[in-house]
Amino acid sequence: MTTHLTTQRASQATPHPTERSATASAPAGVGKLTDPAPDRTTDQDPEAVIAEARAGIDALDAEIVRLVRERMALSERVQRTRMANGGRRINLARENAVLRRWRGELGEPGTTLAMTLLELCRGRV
Ligand SMILES: O=C(O)C(=O)C[C@]1(C(=O)O)C=C[C@@H](O)C=C1
Predict the structure, then answer these.
(1) How far apart are CA 110 and CA 101, in angstroms?
(2) Domain ranges in the chain?
(3) How many CB atoms lie within 10 A of CB 29?
(4) Which portions of the chain have biased composition (kind: Polar residues) (predicted)?
């Protein structure tokens, strides 16, 4: 790819019509891979493509953080209820099931991700 990243051609300044409708109700960049004409990005300004994809990534990151906080609150609820009824804060069998599920979805990095999630979720009660 020899395209110079700082060069913007006039014909590429306006988004493709399908892009506007495809992203009208979603954050910029979200859902791009399932758009009807995914290869149209090849004749867009590369900087615009990257900026748009990064906006989608940033929106997803914010959503993931929101979901992690939601998970932390639910986890705390489980732990508090268990401890209030004579149980322990940690349930290793359940943690193993969580780790197995994440590994099944994402392979070994999924295990690492799940361990980080569990670290965030336990020990806050
Ligand atoms: O599911 C539970 O029993 C929880 O307490 C939640 C959770 C989790 O965050 O997934 C947290 C601590 C336990 O050790 C196991 C799992």
Answers:
(1) 8
(2) 29-121
(3) 20
(4) 1-24
Q: How far apart are CA 98 and CA 91, in angstroms?
A: 11
Measure CA of the first residue to CA of the last residue in the chain; give whole Å.
Answer: 53
Domain at 29-121: CATH architecture = Up-down Bundle (1.20)
User: ipTM value of the model?
Assistant: 0.99
What is the rounded CA–CA span in Å between residue 98 and residue 110? Answer: 10
What are the tens digits of pLDDT across the range 17-62?
444 444 344 444 454 555 555 555 568 999 999 999 999 999 999 9
Q: Is the CB of 115 under 6 A from ligand 1?
A: no
* Cα 61 to ligand 1 centroid, rounded to whole Å: 23
- Candidate from 82, 101, 116, 118 with most ligand 1 atoms within 8 A of CB, to mutate: 118
